[in-house]
Amino acid sequence: MRLRLYNEWLLTEDQRDRFDVVLVSPRNPLNIGAVARAMANFGFARLKVVAPYAPHWHEAKSAVGAEQLLATAIEKATLAEAIGECTLVVGTGTLTYRKPEQTVVRLPDLAPMVRQEMEHGGRVALVFGPEKHGLTRQDLSYCHLLVEIPTGAKQPSMNLGQAVAVCLYELATRALAVDEPAAETAMRARAATAGRLELLAGVVERAMVAADYSPATMREANRHDLRLLLRRLAPSERDVRRILGLFRRILWRLER
Amino acid sequence: MRLRLYNEWLLTEDQRDRFDVVLVSPRNPLNIGAVARAMANFGFARLKVVAPYAPHWHEAKSAVGAEQLLATAIEKATLAEAIGECTLVVGTGTLTYRKPEQTVVRLPDLAPMVRQEMEHGGRVALVFGPEKHGLTRQDLSYCHLLVEIPTGAKQPSMNLGQAVAVCLYELATRALAVDEPAAETAMRARAATAGRLELLAGVVERAMVAADYSPATMREANRHDLRLLLRRLAPSERDVRRILGLFRRILWRLER
Hints:
The structure is a homodimer of 256-residue chains. Chain A is an alpha/beta fold and 256 residues long. In chain A, 44% of the residues lie in helices and 12% in strands. Chain A folds into two domains: 13-174, 3-Layer(aba) Sandwich (Alpha/beta knot); 194-255, no CATH class. Chain A has helices at 13-17, 29-41, 54-61, 68-71, 79-82, 111-119, 137-140, 160-174, 194-210, 219-233, 237-255, and strands spanning 19-24, 46-50, 74-76, 88-92, 103-106, 124-128, 145-148. Chain A has a seven-stranded parallel beta sheet with strand order 3-2-1-6-4-7-5. In chain A, strand 1, helix 2 and strand 2 (46-50) form a beta-alpha-beta unit. Chain A is globular and about 60 Å long. At the A-B interface, helix 2, strand 5, helix 8, helix 9 and helix 10 of A face helix 2, helix 8, helix 9, helix 10 and helix 11 of B.
Protein backbone atom coordinates (compact mmCIF):
# COMPACT_ATOMS: atom_id res chain seq x y z
CA MET A 1 0.00 0.00 0.00
CA ARG A 2 1.38 3.36 -0.94
CA LEU A 3 0.75 5.87 1.79
CA ARG A 4 3.18 8.63 1.14
CA LEU A 5 2.27 11.68 -0.86
CA TYR A 6 5.63 11.85 -2.55
CA ASN A 7 7.65 10.13 -5.21
CA GLU A 8 10.66 8.00 -4.61
CA TRP A 9 12.80 10.98 -5.50
CA LEU A 10 11.76 14.60 -5.29
CA LEU A 11 14.08 15.57 -8.12
CA THR A 12 14.46 14.12 -11.59
CA GLU A 13 17.73 12.37 -12.30
CA ASP A 14 18.69 15.21 -14.61
CA GLN A 15 18.03 17.79 -11.89
CA ARG A 16 20.08 15.81 -9.40
CA ASP A 17 22.97 15.77 -11.86
CA ARG A 18 22.94 19.52 -12.28
CA PHE A 19 22.69 20.70 -8.69
CA ASP A 20 25.75 20.77 -6.44
CA VAL A 21 25.82 21.38 -2.72
CA VAL A 22 29.24 22.84 -1.88
CA LEU A 23 30.68 22.97 1.64
CA VAL A 24 33.68 25.22 2.12
CA SER A 25 36.03 23.98 4.85
CA PRO A 26 33.47 22.28 7.09
CA ARG A 27 34.83 21.38 10.52
CA ASN A 28 32.33 19.40 12.54
CA PRO A 29 31.85 15.78 11.40
CA LEU A 30 28.33 15.78 12.87
CA ASN A 31 27.46 18.78 10.72
CA ILE A 32 28.88 17.12 7.62
CA GLY A 33 26.79 14.05 8.36
CA ALA A 34 23.71 16.23 8.90
CA VAL A 35 24.27 17.94 5.54
CA ALA A 36 24.46 14.56 3.80
CA ARG A 37 21.33 13.42 5.62
CA ALA A 38 19.36 16.49 4.51
CA MET A 39 20.55 16.02 0.93
CA ALA A 40 19.35 12.41 0.97
CA ASN A 41 16.03 13.47 2.55
CA PHE A 42 15.31 15.92 -0.23
CA GLY A 43 16.72 13.87 -3.08
CA PHE A 44 19.97 15.72 -3.79
CA ALA A 45 23.00 13.66 -4.75
CA ARG A 46 26.06 15.77 -5.58
CA LEU A 47 28.17 16.99 -2.68
CA LYS A 48 31.42 18.89 -3.17
CA VAL A 49 33.74 19.69 -0.31
CA VAL A 50 36.36 22.42 -0.56
CA ALA A 51 39.54 22.13 1.49
CA PRO A 52 38.02 20.08 4.32
CA TYR A 53 39.90 19.57 7.55
CA ALA A 54 41.15 16.07 6.75
CA PRO A 55 40.72 14.20 10.07
CA HIS A 56 37.14 15.41 10.55
CA TRP A 57 36.27 14.81 6.92
CA HIS A 58 37.43 11.20 7.14
CA GLU A 59 35.61 10.78 10.42
CA ALA A 60 32.37 12.00 8.82
CA LYS A 61 32.81 9.70 5.83
CA SER A 62 33.43 6.63 7.95
CA ALA A 63 30.73 7.27 10.57
CA VAL A 64 28.26 4.47 11.27
CA GLY A 65 25.18 5.08 9.16
CA ALA A 66 26.89 7.73 7.04
CA GLU A 67 25.00 8.62 3.92
CA GLN A 68 26.19 6.94 0.78
CA LEU A 69 26.65 10.28 -0.95
CA LEU A 70 29.52 11.10 1.42
CA ALA A 71 31.44 8.27 -0.23
CA THR A 72 30.95 9.79 -3.66
CA ALA A 73 31.52 13.39 -2.56
CA ILE A 74 34.09 15.28 -4.61
CA GLU A 75 36.95 17.04 -2.89
CA LYS A 76 38.42 20.24 -4.35
CA ALA A 77 41.22 22.45 -3.17
CA THR A 78 39.51 25.75 -4.01
CA LEU A 79 36.00 27.07 -4.40
CA ALA A 80 36.87 28.28 -7.92
CA GLU A 81 37.55 24.68 -8.97
CA ALA A 82 34.45 23.37 -7.24
CA ILE A 83 32.08 25.71 -9.07
CA GLY A 84 33.94 25.90 -12.38
CA GLU A 85 31.18 24.26 -14.41
CA CYS A 86 28.26 26.04 -12.75
CA THR A 87 26.20 28.77 -14.34
CA LEU A 88 24.48 29.99 -11.18
CA VAL A 89 26.43 30.07 -7.94
CA VAL A 90 24.40 30.94 -4.84
CA GLY A 91 26.21 31.79 -1.62
CA THR A 92 24.58 31.53 1.79
CA GLY A 93 25.03 33.41 5.02
CA THR A 94 23.71 35.96 7.44
CA LEU A 95 24.33 39.60 6.80
CA THR A 96 24.47 40.83 10.32
CA TYR A 97 28.13 41.76 10.29
CA ARG A 98 28.79 42.18 6.61
CA LYS A 99 27.77 44.56 3.89
CA PRO A 100 26.92 42.41 0.89
CA GLU A 101 28.47 43.19 -2.46
CA GLN A 102 26.09 41.10 -4.53
CA THR A 103 22.34 40.97 -4.92
CA VAL A 104 20.71 39.54 -1.82
CA VAL A 105 17.69 37.29 -2.23
CA ARG A 106 15.42 36.03 0.55
CA LEU A 107 15.25 32.25 0.51
CA PRO A 108 11.48 32.27 -0.14
CA ASP A 109 12.20 34.24 -3.34
CA LEU A 110 15.04 32.06 -4.62
CA ALA A 111 13.04 29.22 -6.14
CA PRO A 112 11.96 30.91 -9.39
CA MET A 113 15.57 31.86 -10.16
CA VAL A 114 16.85 28.34 -9.61
CA ARG A 115 13.97 26.83 -11.55
CA GLN A 116 14.63 29.09 -14.51
CA GLU A 117 18.33 28.32 -14.49
CA MET A 118 17.69 24.57 -14.41
CA GLU A 119 15.09 24.78 -17.15
CA HIS A 120 17.65 26.48 -19.33
CA GLY A 121 20.05 23.63 -18.89
CA GLY A 122 22.23 25.47 -16.38
CA ARG A 123 24.14 23.98 -13.49
CA VAL A 124 23.49 25.38 -10.03
CA ALA A 125 25.70 25.39 -6.94
CA LEU A 126 24.55 26.25 -3.43
CA VAL A 127 27.58 27.16 -1.33
CA PHE A 128 27.85 27.02 2.47
CA GLY A 129 30.80 28.41 4.43
CA PRO A 130 32.61 27.11 7.51
CA GLU A 131 30.56 26.86 10.69
CA LYS A 132 32.32 29.63 12.54
CA HIS A 133 32.63 32.50 10.14
CA GLY A 134 30.71 31.61 7.02
CA LEU A 135 31.88 32.44 3.53
CA THR A 136 34.63 35.00 3.17
CA ARG A 137 34.42 38.08 1.01
CA GLN A 138 36.60 36.30 -1.54
CA ASP A 139 34.37 33.20 -1.50
CA LEU A 140 31.36 35.43 -2.09
CA SER A 141 33.04 37.06 -5.08
CA TYR A 142 32.47 33.78 -6.93
CA CYS A 143 28.74 33.96 -6.25
CA HIS A 144 26.08 35.46 -8.49
CA LEU A 145 23.63 35.82 -5.63
CA LEU A 146 23.67 35.77 -1.88
CA VAL A 147 20.65 34.05 -0.34
CA GLU A 148 19.54 34.90 3.15
CA ILE A 149 17.43 32.62 5.28
CA PRO A 150 14.97 34.83 7.14
CA THR A 151 15.94 34.55 10.78
CA GLY A 152 15.23 36.82 13.72
CA ALA A 153 17.99 39.23 14.70
CA LYS A 154 18.11 37.91 18.27
CA GLN A 155 19.63 34.66 17.01
CA PRO A 156 20.36 35.04 13.29
CA SER A 157 23.04 32.41 12.88
CA MET A 158 21.83 28.93 12.00
CA ASN A 159 23.44 25.58 12.59
CA LEU A 160 24.98 24.32 9.32
CA GLY A 161 22.98 21.10 9.09
CA GLN A 162 19.75 22.96 9.77
CA ALA A 163 20.53 25.73 7.30
CA VAL A 164 21.19 23.17 4.56
CA ALA A 165 17.96 21.33 5.40
CA VAL A 166 15.92 24.53 5.18
CA CYS A 167 17.46 25.58 1.85
CA LEU A 168 17.08 22.15 0.25
CA TYR A 169 13.50 21.83 1.48
CA GLU A 170 12.67 25.17 -0.09
CA LEU A 171 14.31 24.33 -3.41
CA ALA A 172 13.08 20.74 -3.60
CA THR A 173 9.47 21.70 -2.99
CA ARG A 174 9.34 25.02 -4.82
CA ALA A 175 12.05 25.11 -7.48
CA LEU A 176 12.65 21.57 -8.61
CA ALA A 177 9.35 19.79 -8.12
CA VAL A 178 9.08 16.98 -10.64
CA ASP A 179 5.62 17.82 -11.86
CA GLU A 180 6.35 21.45 -12.70
CA PRO A 181 5.47 21.91 -16.35
CA ALA A 182 8.50 22.73 -18.46
CA ALA A 183 7.95 26.35 -19.37
CA GLU A 184 8.53 28.14 -22.64
CA THR A 185 12.05 29.21 -22.28
CA ALA A 186 14.19 28.28 -25.21
CA MET A 187 14.53 32.03 -25.78
CA ARG A 188 17.04 32.89 -23.11
CA ALA A 189 20.62 32.23 -24.03
CA ARG A 190 22.74 29.71 -22.21
CA ALA A 191 24.51 31.25 -19.22
CA ALA A 192 28.30 31.28 -19.10
CA THR A 193 29.93 28.93 -16.63
CA ALA A 194 31.99 30.21 -13.72
CA GLY A 195 35.08 28.86 -15.48
CA ARG A 196 34.39 30.99 -18.56
CA LEU A 197 33.82 34.07 -16.40
CA GLU A 198 37.21 33.48 -14.81
CA LEU A 199 38.83 33.21 -18.24
CA LEU A 200 37.21 36.48 -19.25
CA ALA A 201 38.26 38.13 -16.00
CA GLY A 202 41.84 37.07 -16.69
CA VAL A 203 41.89 38.62 -20.15
CA VAL A 204 40.26 41.86 -18.96
CA GLU A 205 42.77 42.05 -16.15
CA ARG A 206 45.65 41.68 -18.60
CA ALA A 207 44.16 44.51 -20.63
CA MET A 208 43.94 46.63 -17.49
CA VAL A 209 47.60 46.01 -16.79
CA ALA A 210 48.63 46.65 -20.40
CA ALA A 211 46.74 49.95 -20.32
CA ASP A 212 48.24 50.97 -16.96
CA TYR A 213 44.68 51.25 -15.71
CA SER A 214 45.73 51.54 -12.08
CA PRO A 215 48.80 51.17 -9.87
CA ALA A 216 50.05 47.64 -9.09
CA THR A 217 48.93 48.01 -5.49
CA MET A 218 45.34 48.14 -6.66
CA ARG A 219 45.46 44.92 -8.66
CA GLU A 220 44.11 42.66 -5.95
CA ALA A 221 41.18 44.99 -5.27
CA ASN A 222 40.53 45.41 -8.99
CA ARG A 223 40.50 41.65 -9.51
CA HIS A 224 37.97 41.30 -6.71
CA ASP A 225 35.75 44.07 -8.09
CA LEU A 226 35.98 42.63 -11.60
CA ARG A 227 34.81 39.24 -10.37
CA LEU A 228 31.82 40.86 -8.68
CA LEU A 229 31.05 42.94 -11.75
CA LEU A 230 30.99 39.92 -14.06
CA ARG A 231 28.59 38.09 -11.74
CA ARG A 232 26.31 41.11 -11.58
CA LEU A 233 26.24 41.41 -15.36
CA ALA A 234 25.71 37.64 -15.74
CA PRO A 235 26.63 37.48 -19.44
CA SER A 236 25.51 34.54 -21.54
CA GLU A 237 28.07 32.24 -23.10
CA ARG A 238 27.55 34.05 -26.38
CA ASP A 239 28.10 37.42 -24.71
CA VAL A 240 31.28 36.11 -23.10
CA ARG A 241 32.61 35.03 -26.52
CA ARG A 242 31.88 38.47 -27.91
CA ILE A 243 33.47 40.38 -25.04
CA LEU A 244 36.46 38.03 -25.02
CA GLY A 245 36.97 38.67 -28.72
CA LEU A 246 37.04 42.42 -28.19
CA PHE A 247 39.40 42.30 -25.23
CA ARG A 248 41.76 39.86 -26.93
CA ARG A 249 41.97 42.23 -29.85
CA ILE A 250 42.55 45.20 -27.53
CA LEU A 251 45.17 43.24 -25.64
CA TRP A 252 46.97 42.29 -28.80
CA ARG A 253 47.12 45.94 -29.82
CA LEU A 254 48.20 47.17 -26.40
CA GLU A 255 50.94 44.57 -26.00
CA ARG A 256 52.31 44.92 -29.48
CA MET B 1 23.85 50.59 9.48
CA ARG B 2 21.02 48.14 9.11
CA LEU B 3 21.92 45.50 6.56
CA ARG B 4 19.58 42.65 7.28
CA LEU B 5 16.30 42.28 5.50
CA TYR B 6 14.45 41.11 8.57
CA ASN B 7 13.07 42.39 11.80
CA GLU B 8 14.41 41.63 15.20
CA TRP B 9 11.70 39.01 15.55
CA LEU B 10 9.97 37.29 12.69
CA LEU B 11 6.79 36.86 14.73
CA THR B 12 4.78 39.38 16.67
CA GLU B 13 4.78 38.99 20.43
CA ASP B 14 1.15 37.88 20.27
CA GLN B 15 1.98 35.20 17.71
CA ARG B 16 4.90 33.95 19.79
CA ASP B 17 2.57 33.62 22.78
CA ARG B 18 0.09 31.51 20.85
CA PHE B 19 2.39 29.03 19.14
CA ASP B 20 3.84 26.04 21.00
CA VAL B 21 6.49 23.64 19.83
CA VAL B 22 5.95 20.33 21.61
CA LEU B 23 8.55 17.57 21.85
CA VAL B 24 7.28 14.19 22.98
CA SER B 25 9.93 12.18 24.85
CA PRO B 26 13.02 13.50 23.11
CA ARG B 27 16.16 11.47 23.81
CA ASN B 28 19.24 13.07 22.33
CA PRO B 29 20.42 16.23 24.13
CA LEU B 30 22.04 17.47 20.91
CA ASN B 31 18.68 17.21 19.18
CA ILE B 32 16.94 19.08 21.97
CA GLY B 33 19.56 21.82 21.69
CA ALA B 34 19.09 21.92 17.92
CA VAL B 35 15.33 22.31 18.32
CA ALA B 36 15.83 25.24 20.68
CA ARG B 37 18.34 26.79 18.27
CA ALA B 38 15.91 26.56 15.35
CA MET B 39 13.13 28.08 17.47
CA ALA B 40 15.38 31.00 18.37
CA ASN B 41 16.43 31.39 14.72
CA PHE B 42 12.87 31.74 13.54
CA GLY B 43 11.56 33.74 16.47
CA PHE B 44 9.53 31.11 18.35
CA ALA B 45 9.61 31.19 22.13
CA ARG B 46 7.36 28.55 23.71
CA LEU B 47 8.77 25.05 24.05
CA LYS B 48 6.91 22.25 25.80
CA VAL B 49 8.49 18.91 26.56
CA VAL B 50 6.40 15.83 27.30
CA ALA B 51 7.83 13.10 29.51
CA PRO B 52 11.47 13.75 28.68
CA TYR B 53 14.17 11.27 29.66
CA ALA B 54 15.35 13.19 32.69
CA PRO B 55 19.16 12.87 32.50
CA HIS B 56 19.28 13.91 28.84
CA TRP B 57 16.81 16.70 29.36
CA HIS B 58 18.90 18.19 32.14
CA GLU B 59 22.04 17.77 30.07
CA ALA B 60 20.43 19.68 27.20
CA LYS B 61 19.24 22.47 29.52
CA SER B 62 22.64 22.93 31.08
CA ALA B 63 24.74 22.68 27.91
CA VAL B 64 27.19 25.49 27.21
CA GLY B 65 25.51 27.98 24.92
CA ALA B 66 22.07 26.46 25.45
CA GLU B 67 19.26 28.64 24.22
CA GLN B 68 17.54 30.67 26.87
CA LEU B 69 14.18 29.21 25.92
CA LEU B 70 15.29 25.81 27.23
CA ALA B 71 15.36 27.36 30.68
CA THR B 72 11.77 28.52 30.36
CA ALA B 73 10.52 25.33 28.66
CA ILE B 74 7.47 23.77 30.25
CA GLU B 75 7.51 20.11 31.23
CA LYS B 76 4.34 18.03 31.08
CA ALA B 77 3.72 14.40 31.88
CA THR B 78 1.38 13.76 28.97
CA LEU B 79 0.73 15.14 25.52
CA ALA B 80 -2.90 15.72 26.47
CA GLU B 81 -1.83 18.16 29.19
CA ALA B 82 0.72 19.85 26.95
CA ILE B 83 -1.78 20.72 24.23
CA GLY B 84 -4.76 21.31 26.51
CA GLU B 85 -5.15 24.99 25.60
CA CYS B 86 -4.53 24.65 21.89
CA THR B 87 -7.16 24.99 19.20
CA LEU B 88 -5.13 23.47 16.37
CA VAL B 89 -2.74 20.60 17.06
CA VAL B 90 -0.54 19.57 14.19
CA GLY B 91 1.36 16.28 14.41
CA THR B 92 4.49 15.60 12.35
CA GLY B 93 6.02 12.47 10.94
CA THR B 94 6.66 10.34 7.92
CA LEU B 95 3.95 8.03 6.72
CA THR B 96 6.06 5.27 5.29
CA TYR B 97 5.04 2.62 7.78
CA ARG B 98 1.77 3.97 9.04
CA LYS B 99 -1.70 4.43 7.72
CA PRO B 100 -2.79 7.90 8.83
CA GLU B 101 -6.14 8.35 10.50
CA GLN B 102 -6.30 12.09 10.22
CA THR B 103 -6.10 14.51 7.36
CA VAL B 104 -2.59 14.65 5.96
CA VAL B 105 -1.28 18.00 4.77
CA ARG B 106 1.95 18.60 2.90
CA LEU B 107 4.10 21.12 4.76
CA PRO B 108 4.04 23.59 1.83
CA ASP B 109 0.23 23.63 2.16
CA LEU B 110 0.09 24.08 5.94
CA ALA B 111 0.73 27.82 6.18
CA PRO B 112 -2.76 29.07 5.23
CA MET B 113 -4.37 26.83 7.87
CA VAL B 114 -2.05 28.02 10.62
CA ARG B 115 -2.43 31.64 9.56
CA GLN B 116 -6.21 31.41 9.66
CA GLU B 117 -6.16 29.78 13.07
CA MET B 118 -3.90 32.48 14.47
CA GLU B 119 -5.94 35.26 12.92
CA HIS B 120 -9.00 33.92 14.65
CA GLY B 121 -7.28 34.09 18.01
CA GLY B 122 -6.54 30.36 18.21
CA ARG B 123 -3.53 28.68 19.79
CA VAL B 124 -1.46 26.32 17.66
CA ALA B 125 0.80 23.43 18.68
CA LEU B 126 3.28 21.69 16.41
CA VAL B 127 4.11 18.26 17.87
CA PHE B 128 7.24 16.19 17.21
CA GLY B 129 7.68 12.59 18.35
CA PRO B 130 10.70 10.74 19.75
CA GLU B 131 13.68 10.39 17.40
CA LYS B 132 13.36 6.68 16.89
CA HIS B 133 9.74 5.96 16.23
CA GLY B 134 7.95 9.26 15.93
CA LEU B 135 4.50 9.92 17.35
CA THR B 136 2.42 6.91 18.32
CA ARG B 137 -1.05 6.27 17.07
CA GLN B 138 -2.32 7.49 20.42
CA ASP B 139 -0.27 10.67 20.24
CA LEU B 140 -1.68 11.32 16.79
CA SER B 141 -5.18 10.94 18.11
CA TYR B 142 -4.69 14.33 19.80
CA CYS B 143 -3.84 15.96 16.49
CA HIS B 144 -6.23 17.75 14.16
CA LEU B 145 -3.87 17.36 11.25
CA LEU B 146 -0.83 15.39 10.34
CA VAL B 147 1.76 17.35 8.41
CA GLU B 148 4.24 15.60 6.17
CA ILE B 149 7.53 17.12 5.13
CA PRO B 150 8.06 16.15 1.48
CA THR B 151 11.08 13.86 1.50
CA GLY B 152 12.21 11.27 -1.01
CA ALA B 153 11.30 7.67 -0.25
CA LYS B 154 14.92 6.52 -0.40
CA GLN B 155 15.62 8.40 2.85
CA PRO B 156 12.29 9.70 4.19
CA SER B 157 13.17 10.02 7.86
CA MET B 158 14.58 13.37 8.93
CA ASN B 159 16.78 14.25 11.85
CA LEU B 160 14.65 15.89 14.58
CA GLY B 161 16.56 19.18 14.71
CA GLN B 162 16.43 19.51 10.93
CA ALA B 163 12.73 18.61 10.74
CA VAL B 164 11.90 21.29 13.31
CA ALA B 165 14.02 23.85 11.45
CA VAL B 166 12.25 23.12 8.17
CA CYS B 167 8.76 23.33 9.71
CA LEU B 168 9.47 26.56 11.61
CA TYR B 169 11.09 28.14 8.55
CA GLU B 170 7.98 27.34 6.52
CA LEU B 171 5.57 28.71 9.12
CA ALA B 172 7.62 31.78 10.06
CA THR B 173 8.01 32.89 6.47
CA ARG B 174 4.64 31.85 5.07
CA ALA B 175 2.10 31.71 7.89
CA LEU B 176 3.22 34.17 10.50
CA ALA B 177 5.34 36.77 8.76
CA VAL B 178 5.03 40.14 10.47
CA ASP B 179 5.27 42.15 7.32
CA GLU B 180 6.75 41.81 3.90
CA PRO B 181 10.17 43.38 4.15
CA ALA B 182 10.69 46.34 1.86
CA ALA B 183 13.62 44.30 0.84
CA GLU B 184 16.26 44.17 -1.74
CA THR B 185 15.11 47.25 -3.56
CA ALA B 186 17.16 49.24 -1.10
CA MET B 187 20.19 47.09 -1.85
CA ARG B 188 19.91 46.80 -5.57
CA ALA B 189 21.96 49.49 -7.22
CA ARG B 190 20.37 52.22 -9.31
CA ALA B 191 20.07 51.17 -12.93
CA ALA B 192 21.91 53.15 -15.57
CA THR B 193 19.79 55.36 -17.81
CA ALA B 194 19.55 54.72 -21.52
CA GLY B 195 21.57 57.88 -22.09
CA ARG B 196 24.45 56.58 -20.01
CA LEU B 197 24.33 53.26 -21.86
CA GLU B 198 24.61 55.15 -25.14
CA LEU B 199 27.59 57.11 -23.85
CA LEU B 200 29.24 53.85 -22.82
CA ALA B 201 28.43 52.27 -26.19
CA GLY B 202 30.09 55.21 -27.93
CA VAL B 203 33.31 54.86 -25.97
CA VAL B 204 33.43 51.09 -26.47
CA GLU B 205 32.84 51.57 -30.17
CA ARG B 206 35.73 54.03 -30.39
CA ALA B 207 37.94 51.45 -28.66
CA MET B 208 36.80 48.84 -31.18
CA VAL B 209 37.79 51.11 -34.04
CA ALA B 210 41.09 52.05 -32.43
CA ALA B 211 41.91 48.36 -32.00
CA ASP B 212 40.88 47.48 -35.57
CA TYR B 213 38.39 45.05 -34.08
CA SER B 214 36.56 44.50 -37.36
CA PRO B 215 36.33 45.88 -40.88
CA ALA B 216 34.54 49.19 -41.41
CA THR B 217 31.70 47.44 -43.21
CA MET B 218 30.81 45.69 -39.96
CA ARG B 219 30.55 48.83 -37.87
CA GLU B 220 26.82 49.30 -38.20
CA ALA B 221 26.13 45.69 -37.22
CA ASN B 222 28.61 45.89 -34.34
CA ARG B 223 26.99 49.04 -33.02
CA HIS B 224 23.61 47.34 -33.07
CA ASP B 225 24.93 44.22 -31.32
CA LEU B 226 26.70 46.33 -28.73
CA ARG B 227 23.48 48.15 -27.89
CA LEU B 228 21.67 44.84 -27.44
CA LEU B 229 24.52 43.49 -25.34
CA LEU B 230 24.48 46.43 -22.94
CA ARG B 231 20.71 46.06 -22.43
CA ARG B 232 21.09 42.36 -21.76
CA LEU B 233 23.81 43.00 -19.21
CA ALA B 234 21.78 45.82 -17.64
CA PRO B 235 24.65 47.38 -15.70
CA SER B 236 23.93 49.71 -12.81
CA GLU B 237 25.03 53.34 -12.93
CA ARG B 238 27.97 52.42 -10.74
CA ASP B 239 28.95 49.59 -13.09
CA VAL B 240 28.71 51.94 -16.06
CA ARG B 241 31.11 54.37 -14.39
CA ARG B 242 33.58 51.59 -13.76
CA ILE B 243 33.45 50.17 -17.29
CA LEU B 244 33.65 53.65 -18.77
CA GLY B 245 36.78 54.32 -16.74
CA LEU B 246 38.47 51.22 -18.08
CA PHE B 247 37.53 51.84 -21.70
CA ARG B 248 38.57 55.49 -21.56
CA ARG B 249 41.95 54.42 -20.30
CA ILE B 250 42.24 51.76 -23.00
CA LEU B 251 41.20 54.26 -25.63
CA TRP B 252 43.72 56.78 -24.46
CA ARG B 253 46.46 54.16 -24.75
CA LEU B 254 45.31 52.91 -28.14
CA GLU B 255 45.00 56.37 -29.64
CA ARG B 256 48.25 57.68 -28.25
